[in-house]
Amino acid sequence: MASATEVCGSVSFYLMEFEKLHNLEKKVMPAAAGSSWNPPPDDIYKINCYGSFDPNKRIGGYGFVVRNMNGEVLVAGAGNISYASSALHTEAIAAYKSVLHAAQLGMSRIILETDSIVLANALKSPNLDRSIIGALIVQIRDIM
């Protein structure tokens, strides 16, 4: 017999598969430098994610915030990254952690906003990403 956690995990997985098949709205947008925050449309959640990187120590950190159409913070998260290869790597980890957390909470209609144009383009591209963070890009796309 499956535990409650296993059942919840299965339900979340099948719900994500259903939403993918029905192409529910999900977008990735680069945040414009110096621009102010704009709320998402009704019934869509906006995720802003950030990564930081120390090239000398090869460590970093990430943070994210999820807001609704009224700009109210629904959930936020942050953490350390013990081993990072680049600023792009930490931005991708921030995106991954944020969309994973949103998916676990049942937030299926999202807009992901990042200040990394390279990351935003990689996530929007239908092509296979062969970069050093390609597997992470695939994981983010799969969750979205």
Automatic annotation (TrEMBL):
<dbReference type="InterPro" id="IPR052929">
    <property type="entry name" value="RNase_H-like_EbsB-rel"/>
</dbReference>
<dbReference type="Pfam" id="PF13456">
    <property type="entry name" value="RVT_3"/>
</dbReference>
<dbReference type="InterPro" id="IPR036397">
    <property type="entry name" value="RNaseH_sf"/>
</dbReference>
<dbReference type="InterPro" id="IPR012337">
    <property type="entry name" value="RNaseH-like_sf"/>
</dbReference>
<dbReference type="GO" id="GO:0004523">
    <property type="term" value="F:RNA-DNA hybrid ribonuclease activity"/>
</dbReference>
<dbReference type="InterPro" id="IPR044730">
    <property type="entry name" value="RNase_H-like_dom_plant"/>
</dbReference>
<feature type="domain" description="RNase H type-1">
    <location>
        <begin position="48"/>
        <end position="144"/>
    </location>
</feature>
<protein>
    <recommendedName>
        <fullName>RNase H type-1 domain-containing protein</fullName>
    </recommendedName>
</protein>
<dbReference type="GO" id="GO:0003676">
    <property type="term" value="F:nucleic acid binding"/>
</dbReference>
<dbReference type="InterPro" id="IPR002156">
    <property type="entry name" value="RNaseH_domain"/>
</dbReference>
